[in-house]
Amino acid sequence: MIEDKILIVGLGLIGGSYAEALTNAGFQVGAIDVNRELIGYALAKGIIAEGTVQLDKEFISKYRLIVFCLYPNAFVGWIKAHQDLIAPGTLITDVSGVKVPVVYEVQRILRPDLEFISAHPMAGRERSGVANSDSSVFKGANYLVTPTACNTLPAIEKCKELGRRMGFGKISELSPEEHDEMIGFLSQLTHCVAVSLMTCRETSLMAKYSGDSFRDLTRIAAINETMWSELFLLNRDVLIHQIDLFVSSMETLRKAIENGDTETLKSVMRDSSRKREQFDKK
Amino acid sequence: MIEDKILIVGLGLIGGSYAEALTNAGFQVGAIDVNRELIGYALAKGIIAEGTVQLDKEFISKYRLIVFCLYPNAFVGWIKAHQDLIAPGTLITDVSGVKVPVVYEVQRILRPDLEFISAHPMAGRERSGVANSDSSVFKGANYLVTPTACNTLPAIEKCKELGRRMGFGKISELSPEEHDEMIGFLSQLTHCVAVSLMTCRETSLMAKYSGDSFRDLTRIAAINETMWSELFLLNRDVLIHQIDLFVSSMETLRKAIENGDTETLKSVMRDSSRKREQFDKK
Questions:
Q1: Is A92 a residue whose pLDDT tops 60?
Q2: Helix A225-234 vs helix A236-258: angle between axes, to the nearest 10 degrees?
Q3: What DSSP letter does each residue of chain A carry, written as one string?
Q4: CB < 8 Å to B275, chain A
Q5: B141 at the A interface (CB within 8 A)?
Q6: What region does A89 belong to: left with phi over 0, alpha with psi -120 to 50, or beta?
Q7: DSSP string for B123-192
Q8: Interface ipTM
Q9: C-alpha count within 13 angstroms, C-beta hemisphere, residue B102
């Protein structure tokens, strides 16, 4: 059984959306954030029942389930500095977009009477902050749980249940390594591509001619530079490999175009159409 | 004043959508296609008033306004082979996605008693054929007219009026060269990027983890290989230049990631976010 009371640490876009989803699901949600205004906003909006800017052991130790909605490095730093505030037996989860450098480090330094099971809600928006939070983005989205040998079966099940209760469509389990390899391609490479498309040339006279293709391919080029530069660097080797694969494909097209090689162009495009079918929303 | 009767040559996705839009706007629309079934379909659907698979001078010369909805090379070929079927004084327009190699060639070979004014409806779908046609894709979309020194003011105005009557949101005028430079970036490069993203690696296990970002960036990776390979090759030099600019931006990101250069990453992302704002739909 999952706890009635859940503590959210960090009221950003995802923290706020978790708070809303969990409050709507009937949980009593508390929150901690360094910014008093965000706590006030979330209280006024009714998406948390209580909140504080203090690192208060009495407050924190009321909760046996804590979700850290911080950037990865801040999360690891919080655990290092403040884990003594957490009650024994508490289950900790997170929302980090990169797993290998986060999961093993937190599990290594965590007190033995606590458990950390990591998760990644694959949903978001091109805006940050609790004021833009919206739990409807979770509806039908993917929720990934990345257990390691350190995790217990009850914790894994509880973490998945959390995803289900927030309305995620598909709950999957994979290793931190599989997660980072997949996310390096599906998410990080796509953000690199969108940013490069948006910045590779002067575009000030182009906006009025734009069709939906360019708009779709650059939607995520409006990007939170603090979070994404951190995520890119935490998954450096995987991402560089994905960039190299992608650039190599671009060079194949370039060469075919230069040589007037219609057959290669058509063959690559047929492959593309065939593979894209698998990604249609079911 | 625009003619009451309009002939569409080629009932593909765009030809069919033009037929529907123009019939809805009150025009009497005729059609020619090599495929009898497509004519039958369009007649049954009520988006054309008459149609034929014959190259019949009597039929064609009833029309003083003809829209060629063929691929670029097929359009130029049709004019070369069959322009004697067209009545003197007829205005011809088209929907070609590339302009420089089409416009000057057609204007060069065209009989002096005909006029060709070229246009590009910037709308479409990831499916082809009249059965997928849908004139609602024009609503709010861009319609580009690319006149040259050969064109008369009345013809340019009539061509623009055609776009307005079909429901396009913005009607713009630019030179064939400006058009191809712009389209090489906004449309052709984006299709190269989507195709490369979709084909650069094995993805069969990835579909179930995909978020909206990857789905959005590869929507156009389901691609009509015959049309797009023709468009790419007709705009070869422009497109190769755009690919080089884009790959160079990818290399800048790659280098910053490899060097752990957070400042460069953030600076590129800030530039990206700022530039992307101009492309938000008004």
A1: yes
A2: 100
A3: ---SEEEEE--SHHHHHHHHHHHHTT-EEEEE-S-HHHHHHHHHHTS-SEEESS--HHHHTT-SEEEE-S-HHHHHHHHHHHGGGSPTT-EEEE--S--HHHHHHHHHHS-TT-EE--EEEE---SS-SGGG--GGGGBT-EEEE---TT--HHHHHHHHHHHHHTTBSEEEE--HHHHHHHHIIIIIIHHHHHHHHHHSS--TTTGGG--HHHHHHHGGGS--HHHHHHHHHHTHHHHHHHHHHHHHHHHHHHHHHHTT-HHHHHHHHHHHHHHHHTTS--
A4: 198-199, 203, 221
A5: yes
A6: left
A7: ---SS-SGGG--GGGGBT-EEEE---TT--HHHHHHHHHHHHHTTBSEEEE--HHHHHHHHIIIIIIHHH
A8: 0.92
A9: 34
B262 alpha-carbon distance from chain centroid: 40
Write the DSSP string, B24-48. HTT-EEEEE-S-HHHHHHHHHHTS-
Q: How far is B88 from chain A (nearest CA, A)?
A: 34
User: For B57-67, how does the pLDDT look when each residue is reduced to its tens digit (9 = 90+)?
Assistant: 999 999 999 99
- Token pair for residue B79? 């004019």
Kindly determine whether residue B190 and residue A217, on different chains, have CB atoms separated by under 8 Å: yes
What mean pLDDT value characterizes chain B?
Answer: 95
Cβ(A159)–Cβ(A65) under 8 Å? no
Chain position carrying tokens 């065939």: A274
Provide the token pair at A181. Answer: 């390899």
Q: Report d(CA B274, CA B258) in Å as an integer.
A: 25
pLDDT of residue B211: 77
Report phi then psi at A114, rounded to 5.
Answer: -120, 160
| pLDDT tens digit sequence for B141-169 | 899 999 999 999 999 999 999 999 999 99
Q: Is A249 in contact with B217 (Cβ distance < 8 A)?
A: no
Cross-strand partners of B66: B7, B92
- State which amino acid sits at residue A26: G
Identity of the residue numbered A80: K
